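User: Hello! I'm new to structural biology and keep hearing that structure can be predicted from sequence alone. Could you demonstrate with Alpha/beta hydrolase? Please show me the input and the output so I can see what each looks like.

Assistant: Of course. The first part below is the input, the amino acid sequence of Alpha/beta hydrolase. The second part is the output, the predicted structure written as tokens.
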Amino acid sequence: MSDNGWPIETVIYKEANGARLKLLVCKPEGWHEADGRSAVVWIHGGGWHSGAPEQFLRHSRMMADRGAVSFSVAYRLLPSPGTPDTAGRASSLEDCMADCRSAIRFIRTNASRFGIRPDRIAVVGDSAGGHLAASLAFGPAFGLVDGCDSEQASVDADREVSARADLIVDCNGIVDLTGKWKQMIPARSPVAGCEDDAVHAWMERHERAKTWSPLYRVSAGQPPMLILHGLADDVVASEDAVRFYETYRSAGNDAELALYPGWRHAFILFDYKAAETEVLRAMGRIEAFLARHGY
């Protein structure tokens, strides 16, 4: 796969909390609205509080070189630790997930505009973006404590349009928030001196962590998924990837697992931690998965 310089188009898919959220769109050479191509959507990582869609521009161009229309998603980020909330930021992981659902709905609603098929939308995510990508395997109530979208998600143009991905690639994604990642879950302060309330508050937070964890939301009928993970990853445990794969397969879903000895976290990013040969190898594995499913 070459890295041709296909032009990038910026499209605003949503406005929420003062933020104008964009998609970076890359179309193949010779693209036409009537093509009915496959779509590949990229979701960046960064612990839900950093990162940018530009991290996947080269990947998008590589996929455009293979004939797909690529999209890289900007979503609201959580405030950095120790900083106050600011306009345009997410208030919780639920906002991040709601934005990604909005992006898929927007792409699917505008499939003819982008020259894609609305039933052939593949999503690839890295790290926290892997969490968000895996979240798109589930139904409309995934991660929703009250069973409905967050207030910000109410701006979606068409709530009847499915936000579920048709194919998913999870690159070293965070799939279990009940352990060290529970720090990302809002906690209420228990009544001072009341032991029972302290236990109840802890259990409430634990259940919310499960609600927002893809590992605990697996059921039959979910889309095919490729899970890639490095065995030298010291950010997200490789055991979590294996448990997620086993659970996904046990539910009867199509899943593939690729483990890489010596590979560290975020191996899918160019010019970061991984050697370019590693990134290209991972990209080749993703391409093979997409090809196996006719993308």
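User: So the tokens describe the shape?

Assistant: Right, they're a compact way of writing down the 3D structure. Reading them back into a model, for example: Helices lie at 57-65, 93-109, 111-114, 128-135, 195-211, 238-250, 276-292.
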